[in-house]
């Protein structure tokens, strides 16, 4: 059963009525509700188009956080083959908020790394809601080093509210681990492409997304801080998150204009969760296109391309 967001309540009522009619018809074979149910379906489809035609930044935040969006594990299972997970940072522990390993993408050996939020209460707790601890970033560094050693392209899938801010994480060097991961992204001489599939929160996202090419799903977000966190700092009131979302320019469309990302991947009508297969196929096509764009470049050229990309950030916004 689809979970509806606050702004989708009118849609929930219409789709609920259509399902009620169909349930009555299933219970009574003599009842024909085809015409009425079809009319409600058409009304729901029209309303869905209207709701998603011009989402506000805050509503995009809500869609990006939808619990039914496909997660990192879903993408790995759908668009990669021969996935072999690699665990641990060889120092402290294995962080389940970060998953990664060797795989094939379009029959090409790659290293894939991403944040995994989990899909139900038990798995979300196990994966710490996708918020990595230092050992998660150190695991990513280890995997990127391995990819560089064997000449494997690195593909990262970003979906985190941010790095875990707990006391233990800080004691184990959270900021240093994030910095090392970001540094490794800049140093490896292999193609590195990233896709923001949900939330791209703060340094927790940058540590995986300092890439040659960065893409975002249409209704994903990418920002230095969450709207709630920003509102708490600026206005001392987290309820002003809508104003903060507007000011942060965290949508894929804004970030494409600013040159922070390189492409926006279209989502099905109503968001990625309404057609997961179509969404994952679109992400696969975008990854293939980004890797193709980098083919033929040697290690030095890839590193130069990546560094220059981030040195140039802000120039589009200033020019505009």
UniProtKB/TrEMBL annotation:
InterPro entries: Acetyl_CoA_COase_a_su (IPR001095), ClpP/crotonase-like_dom_sf (IPR029045), COA_CT_C (IPR011763). It is found in: Cytoplasm. One of its GO terms (biological process) is malonyl-CoA biosynthetic process. Pathway: Lipid metabolism; malonyl-CoA biosynthesis; malonyl-CoA from acetyl-CoA: step 1/1. Keywords: ATP-binding, Cytoplasm, Fatty acid biosynthesis, Fatty acid metabolism, Lipid biosynthesis, Lipid metabolism, Nucleotide-binding, Transferase. GO terms for molecular function: acetyl-CoA carboxylase activity; ATP binding; carboxyl- or carbamoyltransferase activity. It comes from the Bacteria. It catalyses: N(6)-carboxybiotinyl-L-lysyl-[protein] + acetyl-CoA = N(6)-biotinyl-L-lysyl-[protein] + malonyl-CoA. GO terms for cellular component: acetyl-CoA carboxylase complex. The keyword Transferase applies. Acetyl-CoA carboxylase is a heterohexamer composed of biotin carboxyl carrier protein (AccB), biotin carboxylase (AccC) and two subunits each of ACCase subunit alpha (AccA) and ACCase subunit beta (AccD). This is Acetyl-coenzyme A carboxylase carboxyl transferase subunit alpha.
């Amino acid at each position: 059963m689809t979970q509806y967001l606050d702004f989708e309540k009118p849609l929930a009522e219409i789709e609920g009525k259509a399902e009620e009619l169909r349930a009555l018809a299933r219970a009574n074979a003599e009842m024909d509700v085809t015409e009425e149910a079809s009319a409600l379906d058409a009304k729901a489809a029209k309303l869905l188009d209207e709701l998603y035609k011009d989402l506000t930044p805050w509503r995009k935040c809500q869609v990006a956080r939808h619990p039914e969006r496909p997660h990192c594990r879903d993408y790995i299972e759908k668009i990669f083959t021969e996935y072999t997970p690699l665990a641990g940072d060889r120092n402290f522990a294995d962080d389940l908020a970060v998953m990664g390993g060797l795989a094939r993408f379009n029959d090409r050996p790659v290293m894939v790394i991403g944040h995994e939020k989990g899909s139900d209460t038990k798995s979300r707790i196990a994966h710490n809601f996708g918020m990595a601890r230092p050992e998660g970033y150190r695991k990513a560094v280890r995997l990127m080093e391995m990819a560089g050693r064997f000449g494997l392209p690195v593909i990262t899938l970003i979906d985190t509210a941010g790095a875990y801010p707990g006391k233990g994480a800080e004691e184990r060097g959270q900021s240093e681990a994030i910095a090392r991961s970001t540094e490794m992204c800049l140093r490896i001489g292999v193609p590195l492409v990233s896709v923001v599939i949900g939330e791209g929160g703060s340094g927790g996202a940058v540590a995986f997304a300092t890439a040659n090419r960065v893409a975002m799903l249409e209704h994903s977000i990418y920002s230095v801080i969450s709207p709630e966190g920003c509102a708490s700092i600026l206005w001392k009131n987290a309820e002003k998150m809508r104003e903060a979302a507007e000011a942060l320019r965290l949508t894929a469309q804004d970030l494409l204009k600013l040159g922070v990302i390189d492409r926006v991947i279209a989502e099905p009508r109503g968001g990625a969760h309404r057609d997961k297969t179509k969404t994952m196929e679109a992400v696969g096509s975008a990854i293939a296109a980004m890797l193709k764009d980098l083919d033929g470049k040697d290690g030095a050229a890839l590193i130069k391309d990546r560094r220059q990309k981030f040195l140039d950030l802000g120039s589009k916004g200033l020019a505009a």
